[in-house]
């Protein structure tokens, strides 16, 4: 039990059979084919040599297979994390290529340590501080930034910058470097890839092929594009026409090494590493949960933290870049029938073989092709619909989303995410600081009490019924106190106030003070304060104070009981209404 | 109407009669006698010349009388605000006395502008971000700091520092400066004042004197101490024995002037000014509300902001220090029968006469006496009981209180308050991020559903009833989703989950996503999700999304209705129980 808790692999390895191996092997083959161009492309996006992308797809997969809790999650380099890596490393490295590589490795190691630590301390909930609005604003902005940055390779124009404006400015400065041949290859690749994931996919879906195979062939688009454009650039001689190619990719496996510890570098990189960890984790765990649910498997978010942390540590020691669970490759892995994380180990083997023997084949691979695969991939990240839905559903969420989007595009990924999180927290506090309150009346013929503004109800001349739709805490305590006091004294003849507490989940010390003040102020005004339907936990807490002794009125189990006691006539009349009318 | 809104004085001045004048005049006389030593003492505490304390008790009272909404609040220099003033001015001035005075005036003006602006923008609620725990931790810490700082005058030892440690260190360095005569005067004054507010007060209470007069005579202790020790220092010749005296106090009224605007100074002082404004406002408004309630009068917190802002602007232009409503003097004013703010105007007149004609009388007043009055006054601020109550009532509030206390004592007033506010917000978010959840069962013989852990209830084998005691938002969305999912699938035979939403006051976009995921995950697991007792505002919001179409189950008006529909047998049996047993 405890072993499987710390090493989930111990669980599924028991009773691992031949069919499992067959299924995992098949899935691994498919994912490998898909992962090769992705690894090269995201290495390009992260600004590191292509082989580093391959390295990040070998040991990390094995590490995740041992410690992760998802059966089918496929980890490796992904677009958003690679973008954040490039931004952070570019900041610290300036122009120094060695320092840049050291920074990416440091980022992988630090976020690995952070993720493992969060997992051991069971801090998975910290990731929840990233609201979905902030994440979705961030993802859309990243998609735009990534696509924009790739025009560098697509048109042969050198671009630099971490914000949209910086990219636009540097593009304007280098228009002369435009290379028609490169643009041709890029445009062809983009169009082909769009065709492959659109019309071709629908075409294949109508064929008698099994769904997963049709899906796979559509997903194989990038591979086809790689082969086609490589042939065009090499044998086809486009490379001589100035089409930038990947060039010499050193073969062989990464030699595990620990970089020299650099406190200064750590000081500059801990924050980006933290954001990379959190965002990578949130993305990964949501994919894992979606897939796990389909087979009624469970995801332990703390095991996930340790699994992803181990993967990043493995990536770091093998000279790679930060990794996390990728959406599309995980879905392919799942659909292709992967049963256990061994599929990931087999995939790692496939990538290792590629790194050992096939790197020469990438020599003539045009960078424009990789850029095209990136752009087509990240276009799916851009989701304007999310903004429309947020606007319709909740202005506060829309605001947080927009602030994140603008922040990321205008000030870079870090500033944008931080601004978004701050905005989300602030808006939440602001909203809970002005709770919805309702004066209640009795629904005729029932024992239910509802908002006088929404329902035709019976109210008592002597008793004010109020409901506060919020936990009472310091940010809303005084406002609530004043609102109830004003409502109580604004009409003569009011002798009692009954506060319906069914929606009050906490009462903190400030709110307790306010309740005591309200009790005293109402007493001075000759009005008695009662409570009804106080929750168990809240009642336990109130009993640890002397409020209940000081309370001028009583605490009633149900609101109906309270009104029945304080104003029998009205209440009885209201309860009878139905019998009269029916 | 609109005139009295902006100028409350216009309201009560109408129909102001002779008895009003008599009552206000009497109260003013008493408050004046009380305010003179306080003004001198808090000037000493704030580190400014004594006459500045008098200036801060003239125009500000008139300004508040015009714009404030409380009939009986008495404004002027108070201990806590004077401490904050000294800390902030000391920071910027170093040793420069002129710069120090300029800083205190700037603090008064800036917090005046801030308060008026907050009042006009109706931002009174911002003050609610200071939770009562933070304030009470801050007040206790201030009391300790103030008392500690006054040993300087009480023992004749020069002390410097804004934290307890700094004060202790500087005391250790100057023990040789100890002056026996000064210590004698100080000790005598402290003992006398303690006797006056303790035994003497009880003694007077037993006499046939009217309560307010007895109260007044007890409150006159400081005046007696001033007179006694002044005679001892002057005619008694203690001044020659090295007892520090107030010395030459320039007579006359303040000449209203606006200091030259200094952006640099403003940059250093805006934060302390903001804290002074907020804390002064919170203290003042709670006193005003307590007193107003006794006469069924209302306090408009935005009018209070403008009133206090005007008072601080008036203090600034007359070369004074930041002011706010004082607790003890307001109570005396109220008990002595003040009816309208004109009592404040009369008091201002009294202080003005003092500043014009009586300042020579203060020449031989020992600083030790003023220090003694300060120490005895602030001892009432130190409230260990608050910590005990907080510990018993809520550990989170206790933590915020303790963090503020330690922060203020160890790092100064600003750092302490900011740390406390941050802690309070963080703890609130942390608590709402892990909501209380309960599996529910039907109370036999009723239509009520309660926590299975707290009550003997009937549960359905096919339907899981869950209640979440928190609004659903990004910080708790995923946790709630997982908890409900786990509870739903952890027992075979479960076909339905009904989520009782009576305690859910908001559902933000993240929580909506989680509900949709939960709905999908449960569907994949063959379980249907239903909602019951969804609040009006929440339902409105849900209807603006497409969640309700996607929901596999239904939305029931009452939880009973849900169970009656989904598992009639169990529900009917449970409802009948009573009839069977009775």
UniProtKB/TrEMBL annotation, chains A, B:
<feature type="transmembrane region" description="Helical">
    <location>
        <begin position="21"/>
        <end position="45"/>
    </location>
</feature>
<keyword id="KW-0812">Transmembrane</keyword>
<feature type="transmembrane region" description="Helical">
    <location>
        <begin position="342"/>
        <end position="362"/>
    </location>
</feature>
<feature type="transmembrane region" description="Helical">
    <location>
        <begin position="400"/>
        <end position="430"/>
    </location>
</feature>
<feature type="transmembrane region" description="Helical">
    <location>
        <begin position="74"/>
        <end position="93"/>
    </location>
</feature>
<feature type="transmembrane region" description="Helical">
    <location>
        <begin position="133"/>
        <end position="157"/>
    </location>
</feature>
<keyword id="KW-0472">Membrane</keyword>
<keyword id="KW-1133">Transmembrane helix</keyword>
<dbReference type="InterPro" id="IPR011547">
    <property type="entry name" value="SLC26A/SulP_dom"/>
</dbReference>
<dbReference type="InterPro" id="IPR001902">
    <property type="entry name" value="SLC26A/SulP_fam"/>
</dbReference>
<feature type="transmembrane region" description="Helical">
    <location>
        <begin position="177"/>
        <end position="196"/>
    </location>
</feature>
<dbReference type="InterPro" id="IPR036513">
    <property type="entry name" value="STAS_dom_sf"/>
</dbReference>
<protein>
    <submittedName>
        <fullName>Sulfate transporter</fullName>
    </submittedName>
</protein>
<dbReference type="Pfam" id="PF01740">
    <property type="entry name" value="STAS"/>
</dbReference>
<dbReference type="Pfam" id="PF00916">
    <property type="entry name" value="Sulfate_transp"/>
</dbReference>
<feature type="domain" description="STAS">
    <location>
        <begin position="453"/>
        <end position="566"/>
    </location>
</feature>
<feature type="transmembrane region" description="Helical">
    <location>
        <begin position="99"/>
        <end position="121"/>
    </location>
</feature>
<feature type="transmembrane region" description="Helical">
    <location>
        <begin position="216"/>
        <end position="234"/>
    </location>
</feature>
<feature type="transmembrane region" description="Helical">
    <location>
        <begin position="368"/>
        <end position="388"/>
    </location>
</feature>
<feature type="transmembrane region" description="Helical">
    <location>
        <begin position="269"/>
        <end position="288"/>
    </location>
</feature>
<dbReference type="InterPro" id="IPR002645">
    <property type="entry name" value="STAS_dom"/>
</dbReference>
<feature type="transmembrane region" description="Helical">
    <location>
        <begin position="51"/>
        <end position="67"/>
    </location>
</feature>
């Amino acid at each position: 039990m405890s072993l499987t808790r710390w090493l989930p692999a111990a669980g599924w390895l028991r009773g691992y059979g031949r069919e499992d191996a067959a299924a995992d092997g098949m899935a691994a083959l498919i994912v490998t084919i898909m992962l090769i161009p992705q690894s090269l492309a995201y290495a390009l996006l992260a600004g590191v040599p292509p082989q580093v992308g391959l390295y990040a797809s070998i040991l990390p997969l094995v590490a995740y297979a041992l410690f992760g809790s998802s059966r089918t999650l496929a980890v490796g380099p992904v677009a958003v994390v690679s973008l954040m890596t490039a931004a952070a490393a570019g900041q610290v490295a300036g122009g120094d290529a060695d320092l840049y590589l050291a920074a990416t490795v440091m980022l992988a190691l630090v976020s690995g340590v952070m993720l493992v630590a969060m997992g051991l301390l069971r801090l998975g909930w910290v990731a929840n501080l990233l609201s979905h609005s902030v994440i979705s604003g961030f993802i859309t902005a990243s998609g735009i930034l990534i696509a924009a940055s790739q025009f560098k390779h697509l048109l042969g124009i050198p671009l630099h910058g971490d914000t949209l404006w910086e990219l636009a400015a540097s593009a304007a400065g280098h228009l002369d470097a435009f290379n028609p041949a490169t643009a041709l290859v890029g445009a062809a690749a983009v169009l082909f890839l769009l065709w492959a994931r659109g019309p071709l996919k629908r075409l294949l879906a109508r064929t008698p092929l099994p769904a997963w195979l049709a899906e796979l062939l559509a997903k194989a688009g990038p591979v086809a594009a790689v082969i086609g454009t490589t042939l065009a650039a090499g044998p086809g001689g486009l490379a001589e026409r100035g089409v930038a190619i990947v060039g010499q990719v050193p073969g062989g496996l990464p030699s595990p090494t620990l970089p020299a510890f650099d406190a200064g570098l750590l000081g500059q990189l801990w924050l980006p590493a933290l954001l990379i960890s959190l965002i990578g984790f949130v993305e990964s765990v949501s994919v894992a949960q979606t897939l796990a649910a389909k087979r009624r498997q469970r995801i332990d978010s703390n095991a996930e933290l340790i699994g992803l942390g181990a993967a990043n540590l493995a990536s770091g020691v093998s000279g790679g870049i930060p990794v996390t669970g990728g959406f599309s490759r995980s879905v392919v892995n799942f659909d292709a029938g992967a049963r256990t994380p061994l599929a990931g180990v087999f995939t790692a083997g496939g990538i290792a073989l590629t790194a050992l023997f096939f790197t020469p084949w990438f020599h003539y691979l045009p960078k424009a092709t990789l850029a095209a695969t990136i752009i087509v991939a990240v276009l799916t990240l851009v989701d304007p619909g999310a903004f429309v839905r947020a606007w319709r559903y909740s202005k506060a969420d829309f605001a947080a989303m927009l602030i994140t989007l603008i922040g990321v595009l205008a000030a870079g990924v870090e500033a944008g995410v931080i601004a978004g999180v701050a905005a989300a927290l602030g808006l939440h506090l602001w909203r809970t600081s002005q709770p919805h309150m309702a004066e209640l009346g009795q629904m005729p013929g029932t024992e239910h009490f509802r908002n006088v503004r929404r329902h035709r109800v019976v109210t008592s001349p002597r008793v004010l019924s109020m409901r506060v739709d919020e936990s009472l805490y310091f940010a809303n305590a005084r406002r609530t106190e004043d609102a109830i006091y004003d409502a109580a004294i604004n009409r003569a003849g009011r002798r009692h106030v009954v506060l319906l507490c069914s929606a009050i989940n906490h009462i903190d010390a400030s709110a307790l003070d306010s309740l005591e003040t309200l009790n005293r102020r109402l007493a001075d005004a000759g009005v008695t304060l009662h409570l009804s339907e106080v929750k168990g936990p809240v009642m336990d807490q109130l009993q640890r104070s002397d409020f209940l002794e000081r309370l001028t009125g009583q605490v009633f189990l149900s609101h109906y009981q309270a009104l029945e006691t304080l104003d029998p006539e009205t209440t009885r009349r209201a309860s009878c209404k139905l019998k009269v009318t029916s």
